[in-house]
Write a structure and sequence with these properties.
The chain is of the alpha+beta class. It has 5 domains: 3-51; 66-117; 143-295, Nucleotidyltransferase, domain 5; 320-408, no CATH class; 410-449, no CATH class. The chain is built from 16 helices and 12 strands. Strands 3-2-1-4-5 form a 5-stranded mixed sheet, with helices on both faces. Strands 6-9-10-11 form a 4-stranded antiparallel sheet, with no helix packed on it. A hairpin with a 2-residue loop joins strand 7 and strand 8. Helix 15 (417-427) packs across helix 16 (434-443). It is extended. The model is unreliable at 442-449 (pLDDT under 50).
């Protein structure tokens, strides 16, 4: 019996013991008085079994024939069954029963039949088993890097992003505070680590366009590996760049973020620091040495896997943005909406339509190279369009040097003979397009045919 039917048994039992009237029983059961009297009659004659629905346990009038059911289950066993990884799903099996075998059947009906016959069991989607990754054994074998956006200076200064680098084996930390998580912020933090400890073997970062990006259609056609500016810097240093698929994958640096957000913010507040420059000076001088003394641990093996620190000149050639540009026919290179005129070179020159490398340092200094050699250049103003008056003077120097303007479409004036001929056609009743009739009606209202 259903829950509702059991409730009715209880209520009508109270009616039998004269605790309730039928009127009150109707209210408690939520049915009308006439229905209550019918239920009460069945209860007196048959007891609790009389309140059970008459169709309970009976075959539905719209049920499939038993022969149809046996045939469908036989086809499932023969064609669409099997092990968990091989068998057809319920929806797919119902589709094939309809398309291949001509047995139109709902997937939910098929599921009930298969469950009753033991042909189907629910496949629970289990969470992927995660296993804690052991620390690397050597200092410099793997460094995790991430940016943390937080109100580091609270209301005293602007918001910012703290770039954190944490050694996986020892928890040794280097951090720098900047405005955003940009190429220069990431490169500056990595260079600070290299200048202090050396070049690590691998770097663990987020999957962002700053570090890793998806290949463009052109790169996919050529089979080229997509490389970002930061990826190029790491490749030149020989650092393996590993992109994490989730924050949990680089949980060590994520936990360091929480430590800094708790301790660093309060220490900066006590010092009254309100700028990023002051915060970085405090990080280098006091906070990071104290933090590493407190939280760093010994590596599993004593060997240091950092490679030697390159010279400052070598680092300057590595930590820069590099972009390829094509030389125009007048030996001008365009970069970031700026125009650079190449000067005559001694001993070698870059041909027009050749490819040069524009190298931009962090503070904006530029260097143009052709096949590894620097070229002399001077910046020139951007070309401007010639004015309309100068464009009408064929002998103007501006016209000869400026790019050719697009030719304007000539439109005949209102009193042109062509328009008068069109107006006469309108007077004779000839249908013309609206684009011709409207100017004629406005320009020549009094013209004679």
């Amino acid at each position: 019996m259903s829950k509702r039917e059991l409730g009715r048994v209880e209520v009508l039992g109270r009616v039998r013991s004269k605790q309730l009237r039928l009127v009150d029983a109707a209210v408690l059961m939520g049915v009308g008085y006439r229905q209550t009297t019918r239920l009460w009659g069945r209860y007196r004659e048959e007891g609790a079994a009389g309140l059970k629905h008459r169709s309970a346990g009976r075959r539905s009038n719209r049920a499939y024939a038993e022969a149809f059911r046996r045939k469908a289950l036989g086809l499932v066993r023969e064609k669409y069954g099997g092990a968990v990884g091989e068998r057809f799903g319920l929806t797919l099996a119902a589709e094939h029963l309809g398309s291949e075998d001509g047995m139109e059947l709902d997937a939910e009906t098929l599921r009930r039949w298969m469950l009753a016959e033991g042909l189907w069991s629910r496949e629970r989607r289990r969470r992927r088993h995660r296993r804690r990754r052991e620390r690397k054994e050597h200092f410099g074998e793997l460094v995790q890097m991430d940016g943390s956006f937080h109100a580091w200076l609270e209301e005293r200064g602007p918001g910012g992003c703290l770039m954190d680098l944490v050694d996986d084996a020892t928890n040794v930390t280097v951090a720098r505070l900047g405005e955003e998580e940009t190429i220069w912020a990431a490169a500056g933090a990595l260079r600070a680590w290299i200048e202090r400890y050396g070049v690590p073997l691998a770097l663990y970062v987020d999957w962002k366009n700053l570090y890793r990006r998806v290949a463009t259609p052109k790169e996919r056609l050529k089979g080229e590996e997509p490389v970002t500016q930061f990826g190029r810097i790491c490749a030149k240093l020989g650092i393996e760049l590993i992109a994490a698929s989730s924050p949990q994958a680089k949980g060590r640096v994520e936990r360091i973020h929480g430590t800094h957000q708790n301790r660093l913010v309060k220490k900066l507040r006590r010092r009254g620091i309100g700028t990023h420059a002051q915060a970085n000076a405090y990080l280098e001088g006091e906070y990071l040495p104290e933090h590493n003394r407190r939280f760093a641990r010994a590596a599993g093996r004593p060997e240091d896997y950092h490679r030697r620190v390159p010279k400052a000149a070598e680092l300057d050639k590595i930590f820069r943005r590099e972009s390829e540009r094509t030389i125009s026919e007048d030996w001008v290179v365009r970069y970031a909406n700026r125009f650079f005129q190449l000067e005559p070179q001694s001993g070698h020159y870059a041909p027009s339509k050749g490819e040069v490398l524009v190298c931009e340092a962090q503070h904006g200094s530029l260097r143009i190279e052709y096949r590894g050699r620097a070229l002399r250049w001077r910046e020139i103003p951007a070309p401007t369009k010639a004015s309309v008056q100068e464009a009408t003077d064929p002998g103007s120097e501006t016209v000869r040097s400026a790019p050719r303007l697009a030719k304007r479409k000539w439109v005949p004036p209102a009193d042109h003979p062509w328009r008068r001929a069109g107006y006469r056609a309108v007077q004779r009743g000839v249908s013309l397009p609206p684009s011709i009739v409207t100017p004629l009606s406005l320009a020549l209202p009094s013209a004679s045919p």
